[in-house]
Amino acid sequence: MALDRFIDHLAHEKRASPHTVAAYRRDLLQFTAFLTGACGLSGLEEATPKAVRTWMMQLMEAGIGPRSVARKVSSLRAYYRFARKMGLVQADPTALAEPPKAPKRLPEFVAEREMATLLDGMEWPDGFTGARDRLLLELLYGTGMRLAELTGLKPADLDGRRGTLRVVGKRNKERIIPLAAPLVALLQDYLTLRAALPAPPAQGSALLVRPDGKPLPRRTVQSIVKRYLSAVTTQAKRSPHVLRHTYATHLLEHGADLNAVKELLGHASLAATQVYTHNTVEKLKRAHSQAHPRGGGVPVKP
CA geometry: angle at 148 spanning 27 and 253, to 5°? Predict the structure, then answer.
């Protein structure tokens, strides 16, 4: 089946993450159901430009947001690029499709003062759980890594002597992230407690584990981050990815080179990193507006 071949291509040749593969498969199965149900076509290979446009309109009428519709169209485009190369279709029915434009959203981040309150003023639980929770938050804020990268860490990824951490990102791309000395110390203290657990984790297992030695699930990490961030901020988004945004924003606010931040985050292109500069520009605009005689915040004397 062509769809299965495409999914296999994504997973093994493109090395897309399991979440990306699942999203593409879901989008394509949804479009297939639309083609066979609403259009009377036999499958993906019979899709027409009109069918693609009609599907997009149906999604929007159902209340699906512009970003989600654009992502689904992107899934179709990836499939039809593959299908053309394999000789399964002669033309790409998505070639003229224009996804709805989504309003630009600035990345949400936590203020430095609030992060300092969290990491320096928090009463951490005693023992292993408290050490693990603190390390989890320090790693996310101190390295900017993604949630999947965090849960994929293993003790062997730490080079304590050099003060670096090996991270495997999207499409199995590996990068080395520098660690501050206090974070290295936290990691080493945690590893001592980890080794002393009643049920020590198996050799080569995840760095972050539960007290029973089993790997810490993604949802548990999300819950931990939300709980601790809720103690210092009332903003709506309190997720691991917000700490990644916070890491990048604070680096740029303190003068870090944009290309260096790109490498630290593991972005494939500079365009993905440039979104964080909007936050710093907005901050400068506010400062100018409030302080400059012609900025609007200070009345001009006659």
Answer: 105
